[in-house]
TrEMBL record:
It comes from Viridibacillus arvi. Keywords: DNA-binding, Transcription, Transcription regulation. Pfam families: AraC_binding, HTH_18. InterPro entries: AraC-bd, Homeodomain-like_sf, HTH-like, HTH_AraC, HTH_AraC-typ_CS, RmlC-like_jellyroll, Tscrpt_reg_AraC-type_HTH. GO terms for molecular function: DNA-binding transcription factor activity; sequence-specific DNA binding. This is AraC family transcriptional regulator. Residues 175-273 form the HTH araC/xylS-type domain.
Amino acid sequence: MSNDIYEVPQSHRDHFQVKLLYVTKSKYDKDWHSITHTHHFTEILYILKGKGTFIFSNKEVHVTEHDLIVVNPHVEHTEKSTTDLPLEYIALGIQGLAFTSPDDSNLQVTFCNYKQEQESYLFYLHQLIEEVEKQHEGYELIAHNILEILLLKIMRKKAFTLEETSTQIMSKNLVFIKNYIKQHFREAINLDTLAEIIHINKYYLAHSFKKSVGISPIEYLIQTRIRESKILLETTNYSISDISTITGFSSQSFFSQSFKRVTKLSPSQYRKIKSSKKNSSNVIQSIIEK
């Protein structure tokens, strides 16, 4: 008989003083683009499938399945997916911490591949999703404990330290609303919809959001849709009517009015100017190559 006993000493490590703001599982579909954005919190993305590029601070980094990406607060970023192998990933929003490294005093984004350890990490990530989806009794505590395990395992993989950040910058509800709008702006959304999601009075939501963000939730939604429409106007041949529908506007006329109010140009004028600049750039490049 073999009986191996391992003593476990009392840990002197404190629990991480962090909040798990959201857990999302996203997949790129046709005509879906991520918009360049920033967070007041740390975001961790684990790529389940696909290939693409992660863009931040004028840098583009190729990413693929089992890459884990840590994005520190206030870093402007976005991701692009290849059309043949669309990205599918799990994202965690974590308030109250930032990652630091002895090798980089101004760490913005870091990348690490977990292909060899995928089984362990995917187990915890899927457990986290299951807890927040089912919301059985005590799920908040279990989710926080799973998050702590993931953070510690990430720190084992790379020489990270965690630095506490202010948790007072933006409330959990407002962070959730901004992320919800980012994920669902193509859908029919109004103030009642947003208030119902987080179970608060819609007038209180409107007041709190404007005080924190500077604009109303609906104006934030419109500006998010306008940013997406700019991408489609520049990169596709879709009609103005189709673009208004794709980006969630209730009508082409409302889209055109909103677009002109925000950009001082009509959608057609914006497309024409961008097309003209692109053609001029191509002509110049052709002359240089000759």
